[in-house]
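debug: dumping io for the single-chain case to check the tokenizer round-trip. Nothing else runs in this session.
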Amino acid sequence: MIVFPNSKINIGLHILRKRTDGFHEIESLFYPVSLKDALEIIPAKDGSFDFRASGLPIPGNPSENICVKAYELVRAKYGIPPVKMHLHKAVPMQAGLGGGSADGAFSLKLLDTLFELKLGNAKLKELALQLGSDCPFFIENRPAIAGGRGELLKTLDFDLSGYHLVLIKPDLNISTAEAYAMARPDHNRPSLEKLVKTPVASWKDHVQNDFEKSLFSKYPELAHIKKKLYANGAIYASMSGSGSTVYGLFEEQTNIENQFGDCLFKMLRL
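debug: decoded output
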């Protein structure tokens, strides 16, 4: 069986406060987009588990890949047999697009289907949270306001259909730990849920990603990309999550790929 784990963008990201457990309370709108990996899982007829990957190189030990962790989690709880897993990676890593989180969540959903576990979304979200804070979002995979550390989800009737999305990923990787280490929490401002319900044309001055202030200072190329997106007609531009992808929303299709050098460039129709 094959599935296609998609990515997401963050529309606004407020870092509200640091918690006693070391995590941060956030508020962000998670919006699914169609940049996808491919994941195949089949029963292992020879009785031995195997994980392989292709596409974009994935750093680290394959045994620690989030897909493997998802399998081990389900195996330990429900006694499923060995499988063969193949992940083709197309969503860049450490990019603020949730690609790894999606891979983990889709692994859980595919294993649930393959072995007819009938876990339901509530149980799948519970398992997904053990893999990562963003993973539960990809179980239902619908626009949602995320609270807590990203796991508290409020589905939102929100639609950007018709816009063109440009994703720019420079040759720069930013870890979540690095981004949060530089963050300055602020809980005294209007709720993001209220702000995103205003016209998209008004977002430029009101819908902010709190990571930008510190990361743009350290990595000025990110600020340059955002400025260039606006200069080329973006109605709204922002960094996604903790970066390093910067995206722009356009009302019309635009041909600006050659302006971003060696950066990874993707244009999607929402």
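debug: round-trip ok. Residues 163 and 251 are 5 Å apart (CA to CA).
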